[in-house]
Amino acid sequence: MLSPRFFGKIFFIEDYSLAVSRLMVQGCDVWLNNPRRPYEACGTSGQKVAVNGGLNLSVADGWWCEGYNGTNGWTIGPLVAKGSLGPEQSDYDDAASLYSLLEDKVIPLYFERDADNRPHNWLLRVRKAMQTLIAQYSSHRMLRDYLSDYYIPAATSHQELRSNHYALARHLSQWKQDVNARFGSVQMDTIRIEGIKEDSLLDGQSLHVAVTVHPGSMKLDELLVQLVAGPGDGSTFTETPDVVEMQPESEGVDGTMTFVCTYTPSRSGIHVYGVRVMPCTEGLSSPLETRLVLWG
Question: Are residues 72 and 188 in the same domain?
Fold first, then answer.
């Protein structure tokens, strides 16, 4: 059901169907999106707004968690990171935030005119929205990502598997027959970290991480050891973590291998980390293909 409200010349859509949104988005200066967090599936209607010269006024849910940058629209209520969305929400607080934004920010900015009777600052925000959102949230970018990240690698892998009378395909089939059992014998010793003082790391400083791995029935060149670290809430990642491949440094007399790496965090705040070991061999589409991971 369509439920519009008018504030001067600004047109807000409070509830809409997808078909109606396609027709109305071209005529909106502000697109209001206020579902209860975290039930916004994605927000494709809001993604169409910038290319039509409009601005989003939305709760921090769906795409707007990452699309909003402080200058390209407005966020109702708290700024919530994509990875920390939860069911906690105060309708009364969000309503107060919405009315405050309308009264103090949105409507005054829209009717603020320069000497030529143009809403100069409003248009600046529209340009910011177009610059930061159109290229990122478009079917062109989506198809380009599918092509470069999936279709071309898949086609290349297919050609490699077929070459030399399917030699690589036969190697993979043979390797996978017993990798589950062999990888079960891999063990990881205590992880050693240098560079942290009282659970803190100053900006620009690096961590030196080392771990000793018992390969068991696996060959050392069949093991991929990685440090996975990034912003978190103490138990899990809240953003896409950094992945650093650890390099073999020294082999013990008992056949163990020490892997090391240096990691410099690129973001501030609380971080979580872990070291993982995965089996790998030539021809795998991804180290995660086997679904075998040992965490430490």
Answer: no
Domain final residue pick, 137, 169, 187: 137
- Helix and strand numbers (H, E) in the chain are 8, 14
Order of strands across the sheet that contains 294-295: 242-245, 223-231, 271-279, 294-295
Q: Which domain holds residue 124?
A: 4-137
Over residues 199-228, the pLDDT tens digits come to 566 666 788 999 999 999 999 999 999 999
**Nearest residue to 167 (alpha-carbon basis) of 175, 240, 294:** 175
What would the two tokens of residue 157 be? Answer: 């892998």
- CATH code where residue 82 lies: 3.40.50
Write the CA distances from 7 to 13, 107, 160, integer angstroms: 12, 8, 61
The pLDDT > 90 percentage for the chain reads: 57
Over pLDDT 70: what percentage of the chain?
86
113 and 172 in one domain? no
At 262-280, the pLDDT tens digits run 998 877 777 888 999 999 9
Residue 82: the pLDDT is 60
Q: What is the DSSP letter of 150?
A: I
> Looking at residues 98-109, what average pLDDT do you find?
96
- 180 shares a domain with 105: no
The DSSP string of 14-40 is SS--HHHHHHHGGG-SEEEE-PPTT--
Could you report the per-residue pLDDT of 162-203, keeping only the tens digit for each? 999 999 999 999 999 999 999 999 999 888 988 776 556 666
Cis check: omega of the bond before 153, within 30 degrees of 0: no
DSSP H helical ranges for 225-284: none
CA distance 200 to 281: 37
Report the number of distinct structural domains present in the chain: 2
Name the maximum alpha-carbon separation found in the chain. 81
